[in-house]
Automatic annotation (TrEMBL):
This is Cyclopropane fatty-acyl-phospholipid synthase-like methyltransferase. The keyword Aminoacyl-tRNA synthetase does not apply. Keywords: Transferase. Residues 55-144 form the Methyltransferase domain. The keyword Transferase applies.
């Protein structure tokens, strides 16, 4: 059983994520590899989106390399991130795209998109916040929209380290993700737990009906 002290510690670590990335934005941008080890999954994602279709990158970071890949593939990209410094980098690098400083938990763009991606971002949210994201995914999805996100392989919490500080990760169970997707009218297209061809990422790809 997880102690109350550990639960409180994990919750506190989760709440500091936006501040952590803001304070270390340049370090994150430098340390984030620019090679697309995710490309096979990005290709599967864009295969569900019409040429030039709109993509919402949720937790876009500095726009490198994933948003760049979409932009260079001809898609209209809108990106959100909680870090003003990272969004400034996006605006400098890709001035013709649409960038917003925003907390994904309060996402309200009054628009819908052909594709939504939350790669290595959604999994920083605690369990309840993750559950609350699925109505927001649906609200921002056009009919037939693709949705892709990464998670952990099983229900639980894990603590990483970034610049010597705790970095929270949370995951629901695969069964709960499937249930939430179904409840909000998404069909699972592909799922792979700890994909060895993608840096052991656990990936979900779904489509809004």
């Amino acid at each position: 059983m997880i102690s109350q002290h550990m639960q409180n510690s994990n919750k506190q670590a989760a709440e500091t994520i936006p501040d952590l990335y803001e304070r270390h934005a340049k370090v994150w941008d430098t340390s984030r590899g620019k090679t697309l080890f995710e490309r096979s999954w990005l290709d599967r994602f864009t295969a569900l989106i019409s040429q030039g279709g709109s993509i919402l990158d949720i937790g876009c970071g500095s726009g490198e390399p994933i948003s760049r890949y979409f932009i260079e593939s001809g898609h209209a990209v809108t990106g959100i991130d909680s870090s003003p410094s990272l969004i400034d980098m996006c605006r400098t690098r890709f001035p013709n795209s649409d960038w917003h400083v925003a907390d994904m938990r309060r996402l309200s763009l009054c628009r819908s998109f052909d594709g939504l991606i939350a790669w290595d971002s959604f999994f920083h949210l605690p369990f309840e916040d993750q559950r609350r994201m699925f109505p927001l995914f649906r609200t921002h999805s056009k009919p037939g929209a693709a949705l892709m996100f990464t998670s952990g392989p099983a229900h639980g919490e894990a603590m990483g380290v970034f610049v010597g500080e705790p970095l929270y990760h949370g995951s629901l169970s695969p069964d709960e993700y499937r249930a939430l997707l179904t409840e909000h009218d998404f069909t699972v297209v592909a799922h792979k737990a700890e994909d060895p061809a993608c840096g052991n990422h656990t990936v979900w790809l779904a489509q809004y009906q």
